[in-house]
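Pilot study result, target chain (508 residues):
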Amino acid sequence: MNEADRKMIGVTQKFCMRLAAAQFSDLICFIFVIGAIFIHAAAGAQSTAPAPRAVLGVALRELSPQEIQSGIQGAFVQGIVPNGPAEKAGVRPGDIIVGANRQAVASGAQLVRMIGSRNPGDLVELVVLRSGRRQTIGVTLAPPVAGKPSAAQSTSRPAETEPPAKPAGTALPAGGSASTAIIRFRPFSVRDPQLNNREALRMLVPADWRVEGGILWRHDRAILATAVLRIFNPNGSEELNLLPIEQFAQANPGYGFGIGSNYLGSELQPAMDPQTFVSRIVMPRYRRQIGPVTPIGGGELPAVAQAEQSSGMPSQMRAGRFRYSYSLAKRPMEEDVYCVLSYTSAPAVQSVYWSAEQLYSIRAERGQLDQKTKLMLAIVSSTRINLQWYNAYLQVWEMWKANVMQSIQNAGHLSRYIAGINNQITATNREAWEQQQASYDRISRRFSEYTRGVDTYHNPVTNQPIQLPGGYGRAWTNSLGEYIVSDSSSYNPNIGSSTNWQPLQRVP
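Predicted structure:
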């Protein structure tokens, strides 16, 4: 490796320490590659599949390539619906279902089809692999019920004694008038199967919304892992997409690589302003299946970029929000794309490294997007990166970087790197995690201030601030980490509830 290569790697190292806790589009096929697509047996894996007649009450994921190579076939139980058929019968998270009614189960998708074709009340004999031993469990199937854990949920919640949540933002009479607007949020955990199923991210989502996606690992990219998620209202058109994060490089043409080539983990692209980036990279890549899209507004947001720009910081920051319109399933849609870009110059090698610090989009039917923006920005603002996961990621990245320095052709052995991580958190890694989360919070707060999208409250349970959709005026939380917001002065979530809801105070 020549000196120019070494200098470019050094810039990459400094640049990639600013890992964005990023994002997902409709390209769910990416997740299938690494086996991180979670299949909800109560809802089915495809929206075009017939509705299931009966459910098992579990959240599944497909086995990873490493698990399959070890000779195991089946469906991994990622989570259990509280008080559901599977939990009552004794199925546990971590079980691998390898058989059903004396038929081998080769995949989660196969199990979903098998269960969905049966009737409520049917007895299904499951064979599960638990701690290396096979057990037979009889489960009586139940009818489908709305509001259960969504496709990617990997942790179960305590059973609720309250009525199921209504669609977010709709009229609810519970404790108020017929026009009372109430939204209930639940904590949602995104886990990473590649890192021993550690929790990678946690966020708040409306209780009746679904989440699809997971953590995407790329062995040939300087940003090795990016969280890719689709968070949507199954009863409406609202959808939040956290889009994949890439690192780009505007390199010296003398290196002989063409536009779009991968050089030392960076995609070669000329440095672009936010609007050009969204129009030339984001929309063609992540909305190409939609058809024609029309830009209808938006622009750069200097105040958001300024929130990230600090004295002595070598990177330049730019930010923007851009709106597009298009037709989806014959429905007119509008979509806002939010991005914050950073640019780091490397004069020694005549290059500029640039990437998105944040990249996500929100969409809804035409005429509804502005009304729904507050809710979806509150979801973004609530995202928290897990320190243990971030520490493991940085260890893997350091090993990957060292390998690149030594031998480019061997940089793809992620499994070997992952096997070498430990749980000790160095002061450097903790500081990087704190800086990353603080950066995320600053950007989210500025976007929210620009759109006037969220209000900040003080949570007496955690003694931490929390941002919730603006304009409701009243909010509560409970010990499960759930939240409720309401615009009614007479609404009280403690009436008729066994859960203790504590009121939150707005922070000026």
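One observation from the pilot: Residues 427-451 form the longest helix (25 residues). A full batch analysis is planned for the follow-on phase.
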